[in-house]
Amino acid sequence: MDSGGNSLPSGPDGVKRKVSYFYDPEVGNYYYGQGHPMKPHRIRMTHALLAHYGLLQHMQVLKPVPARDRDLCRFHADDYVSFLRSITPETQQDQLRQLKRFNVGEDCPVFDGLYSFCQTYAGGSVGGAVKLNHGLCDIAINWAGGLHHAKKCEASGFCYVNDIVLAILELLKVHERVLYVDIDIHHGDGVEEAFYTTDRVMTVSFHKFGDYFPGTGDIRDIGYGKGKYYSLNVPLDDGIDDESYQSLFRPIMGKVMEIFKPGAVVLQCGADSLSGDRLGCFNLSIRGHAECVKYMRSFNVPVLLVGGGGYTIRNVARCWCYETGVALGIELDDKMPQHEYYEYFGPDYTLHVAPSNMENKNTRPILDDIRVKLLEYLSTLQHAPSVPFQERPPDTEFHEEDEDQQDPDQRWDPDSDMEVDDNRPISIRSRVKREIMEPDLKDAEDVKETADHARDNTAVSFSTGSTSLKPPNPNLGSDQQEACVKMEQDSSNKPPDQPADMNL
Ligand SMILES: [Zn+2]
User: pTM for the whole thing?
Assistant: First the structure.
């Protein structure tokens, strides 16, 4: 087994991993609007499944600290962040020029609580990075994150702020090299663009390419300047199945781990690459999708798992629940436990669903060509490494006890901001297509989700003050059971972190 990078605090060969899971019980209440395919409710459905499969008591459950303006401004432009903070559904008519300028209004609508939503999902990913940096967990999970299309000064593809870029910037404070892997069906353009000219972050995106949003991610796009060969793109066609996908994922990622030796990995687990997705056209099973998590986990390197796309929400919840099990090393029963969203999962009420019989347009010769090409890029890197590939020093300078003594306003060194790439070639940004939205409400999931939105909008059933994690009590009803698993308020990203050398 290849094992690049650094060993986990829990030991190199352990089956179990220490997992920190970030969840805000409010996140399911944010609502993009009727007919919009992006439904934060899927995060709450995932959480309910985790609770009823009994997984919450095996991980540290943390409520993210909302990211502040200055945290978001580590990547995003000040005026864009101010705009996101101030815009409301009531005032948007007076700001038409700004809406257009920041690409907000259509695919990325203004909705109630938009800015808090951004703060919450970004807070989870950055909080996860801080936990990993401090060696407090082996795997951090934020299913609300993974909004990979957001740009420095622009919303895109249902994404407003790029929590992934922010989390990677945090990881770079401690790790010389960070690997980003993206298995969403869409190209991870926002993250690639942010790190296109650096050799400290390698981005690898597997996506549908050709007449598909966002239009970028050609196999020939490999990075620029110092970043040449540090952006990799794996263009795929409709109907790819588990076997075809793994025939690329494993050899490519195995080689990347061997050559790049990252100190930490961020894996974007967009679930729109699953079979039967409302916007997607791949044919992956949940096991096939989760195989990527299993494989990246096997290298004993700290991993941040984030969500992303995923528009058939019952399958998104299935997938991220199963992948949380994979992170923990717990195999889940296919028979789903009774819970408040059980009716979404009929008629079979199982965790797994069979992929379809759609045609796989990715023929063996095409897949072979793609694999050969990418391995060729990587062998070029192998023979000309521009970053010294040595192990990083241990995290001894980080002690939780010290953190409370420090001024939270000094959390990030304002002078340490990296130059985030305004120099990349223009061609990448000019090939943008719109993500297709289906404005109808005929999907039964939509109707249920709209009803649940109305029902849950006022209900907050979580206590957030306690640190106790108790097993579910079979004598309690589901609401009471949920309340048994108390969440901790994440305090790990409040104190200042070591200012990093950001001369990328
Ligand atoms: Zn997507």
Answer: 0.81
